[in-house]
Design a protein that fits this description.
The protein is an alpha+beta fold and 169 residues long. The protein has eight helices and three strands; from the N terminus they run H-H-H-H-H-H-H-E-E-E-H.
């Protein structure tokens, strides 16, 4: 897996940008910081966020959280986050949750089967989620939506608890 610096350099070159141009786009006055990051210096999450936005890629991709190259642009992610804030779970699954699972070494495959209930044949959609050891589970749209909702609630609780610890509450 490549490093943050390697990914920044790869995306910068892919966009035809110089270090100076990336520095300016990310809010730096010179290319020095970009050069140091590309040569292996660690970066804060705030810096990774600025670089992701300037390179129009996800922070997950820059940080190497995905084994495969994340092709979701930063603008698409911002739009999806806005959609998630008003997301109605009755209307279906978010692509972000599937991407989240895939970035954490889970494979997600959407599958359709014809179901004969005796009166008519209908198409039933479900998802097969497989972990790195090949263990699979079949989930309906509703089950995957509920898992998405529970995961979001759990992460929000963890973050809130961290804030409380830091504030001494």
């Amino acid at each position: 897996m490549s490093t943050l610096g390697e990914r920044v350099k790869k995306e910068r070159i892919k966009l035809g940008m110089t270090q100076d141009e990336l520095a300016k786009k990310a809010g730096y006055s010179s290319r020095t910081s970009i050069n140091k990051i590309e040569n292996g210096r660690p970066a804060s999450l705030k810096v990774v966020h600025k670089l992701a936005e300037a390179l129009n890629v996800s922070e997950w991709y820059l940080l190497g959280s995905c084994d495969a190259e994340d092709t979701t642009s930063y603008e698409e992610i911002k739009d999806k986050i806005k959609q998630m804030r008003t997301y109605d779970y009755a209307n279906g699954i978010t692509d972000n949750f599937i991407n989240y699972l895939r970035c954490h070494i889970w494979q997600v495959e959407e599958v359709s089967d014809d179901v004969d209930n005796g009166k008519e044949i209908t198409e039933e959609k479900y998802f097969v989620v497989t972990n790195e050891n090949g263990v699979s589970i079949k989930l309906t749209q509703e089950e995957l939506d509920e898992l998405d909702k529970k995961t979001s609630e759990y992460v929000e609780t963890l973050i809130l608890n961290e804030f409380k610890k830091k504030l001494g509450l």
